[in-house]
């Protein structure tokens, strides 16, 4: 069986199909297939010449199935995969769907102690025979002694009389039982109150609520009620023993907590709009319409002047801009390399060494190029490293303290760790990858000892790269945890405080990279709470409608800066607790379209990312080059 990364697959299928390519494709039957786990099915590939299977190579993308050299597909685990019959360089695709397995095991636990006249949630986790956790499983409940307790269809246990009984939970053939003891209720009353001051509450502010029992004997016992609110425009959800409220629209809301037939309390919350006193304005622009722009990095050179180095997309130049006067960038040089794409540019913290990535070299030896920045206005090539990254490098990260480079190798989708202590003779000292032959690594960022690797459909993978929590070192990182989601296309991650911001990159299926026209990108920013680094939890999102997210940055003022492709440069308030839809909550504090009539695609933004430097925000636009912006504080008008 052979596998292809998503990056290579995209390269294969993008672009118009020529008449020769159409003639050399094969017809595969069936064109779609539903296959249960453990079963196999033989695909038949018929060439244009009428032969079956001759000179056809089979590939698979995804880990749901495997495929043999003769086209026999075997379902390994639930999910969806694409199988390709490759003939004379052109693939024909078959979509194989493997349905989810039923529940094989149930784990049940009570949310707390059960008292008469009160309800307590029963939490049930369902797992398949492969150990996969299931969501939205239809459960049925039965209580042996309904004179002691009852249970409703949502799994809430109501204590009726003191005593003990057995609750049986089932989902298909999976069954588990739990002993429930009901204690006498000694509560004298109940109070619903917020855990923080709600004066001046704004959209996006998170309020934790708690329903507690009054009286000396109950000692302030916290209940786990059923939460609801009215009207629409906000959400409230259970978070352990507390209710978590956040509003997306201003208004007056009534939150109700119900913990038994006669236990119901309601609180009023008044929410105002989230106003901002800033706007994002353009400072300067360096046009590179003839060379479509890639990533950029800004730094102060050893000569005391400021520079922005800019990669190019489908070109072989790195652009050097003097941005000492950010209102008037000056192009001082262009460094030509053997490459079809210089995607990434990074500068060592000593500001004396630069790293640029190469893809599509005519020599087929890509790798990275190291630049001598003794004269930053006119950098020179110091050395290159290609030996173990010939397949191309898409992104890199420099660990300056250790003189190491983490390189994302296209060929193997591994993080290749390169020692640059002697920049004239770089050498590989380690590598790391997830255990998935169809993996696709796009990006890696190292912050505070943790590496965050964006592994496309496998999600974001967190590594101990010197944090010391899981035995990892910068030269030998170790796995910590991972987080994936159905959308896939995990493109980039950025850590800020207890949150990890993870961006998607989704291009339309008919996107033609050779056409260089407007691109209707999609994707958004997932917000993960990584307080428990071993168990990331998605808690919020930032999604600009009808546009796609790209690279991220943040500052010490709790602001997130996002290159949001056709939606331009965006700045988001990420202060405090984050929950829900940050865009709808009005947390966006600035936006700037990086479109220009002089661009290679006139008046269409394709904003790449953002970097803060000396109070300015630097970004690049695929179609129009370097952009410099700033946030301007404005006075509120009464």
What does this structure look like?
- The termini are far apart.
- The protein has 638 residues and is an all-beta fold.
- The strands form 14 sheets. The chain has a five-stranded mixed beta sheet with strand order 1-6-9-10-3.
- The chain has two helices and 55 strands.
- It has four domains: 97 residues, Immunoglobulin-like (Sandwich), CATH 2.60.40.1080; 79 residues, Sandwich (Immunoglobulin-like), CATH 2.60.40; 83 residues, Immunoglobulin-like (Sandwich), CATH 2.60.40; 356 residues, YVTN repeat-like/Quinoprotein amine dehydrogenase (Methylamine Dehydrogenase, Chain H, 7 Propeller), CATH 2.130.10.
How would you sum up this structure in a few lines?
The protein is mostly beta strands and 638 residues long. It contains 2 helices and 55 strands. It has a 5-stranded mixed β-sheet.
